[in-house]
Amino acid sequence: MIKLIASDLDGTIVDREGNISERTRRAFLDARDAGIHIVFVTGRPFRWLTPIIEAFGGMGTVICSNGAVLYDLEQDRVIWSRTLTAATAKQAEQIILEHEPNAAFAAETTRGLHLGANFAEQNRTLGSQSVLDLNSEAIDQEGIVKFLARSKSLPIDDFYAAVAPELTQLLSVTHSAFGVSLLEMAHVDIHKATTLDVYCRELGISADEVMAFGDMPNDLEMLEYAGHGYAMASGHPLALATAQHTADTIEADGVAQVIEKLLK
């Protein structure tokens, strides 16, 4: 029996234009009406939840920043966050620069985005932002929930393979996009599944009562954790190899198809 549905956003239910289809929206609402808990689990910061708000309003709880933030969408507040220190981020920066001297960096904190030189594409708007300074006390006071490293020369899988072995004892490292070579790093104990497990335990729900959907390497632990894990057919090969099941593509409303079948 499924008591909770956990779903990634981008590439899973949110398309390239940033929209959630009406069929998918209706499937989640029907699942909620049937008494199933809904939790969205995303790499996005809590400030970038526009697709969820537009589709569902202030519905429920969202696990953000790959598990580093638990956010109450209904009350518009951070329930808790797990941060890493600026000193740890600085260590990671030094390791990455040894392998990719032209890497650019940024940090998501509980209060905003801190951009290093050459991180963002010219003229791209990323919302409210500050200059990244890993030596400042302010960034530690805010707390880094996600440290980002971008390569403009190495493909993402090559970038990850080059640095991950030296980083895994220091922090967690993953990636979540096909179109940009971007590493996403967090506290060493944090990924989507750790926070999802905490959330489920509070509700008295076991892993075998969870259905989860995802498409990228930052979803791997969640897909392994859930008793019913679905990778999107259009997802990363690692996601497809990890999940027990495959859902149709986002263009075909694959998640909605699975939920509709569940509710029959």
UniProtKB/TrEMBL annotation:
Ordered alphabetically, the record's keywords are: Hydrolase
Source domain of life:
Bacteria
**An MF annotation (GO) of this entry:** hydrolase activity
Is Amino-acid biosynthesis tagged as a keyword? no
Chloroplast keyword on record: no
Name of one Pfam family that matches: Hydrolase_3
- Output the Gene3D superfamilies linked to this UniProt entry: 3.30.1240.10, HAD superfamily/HAD-like
> What InterPro entries does the annotation carry?
Cof (IPR000150), HAD-like_sf (IPR036412), HAD-SF_hydro_IIB (IPR006379), HAD_sf (IPR023214)
The molecule here is called Hydrolase
Q: Which organism is it from?
A: Glutamicibacter ardleyensis
Lineage, opening ranks: Bacteria, Bacillati, Actinomycetota, Actinomycetes, Micrococcales
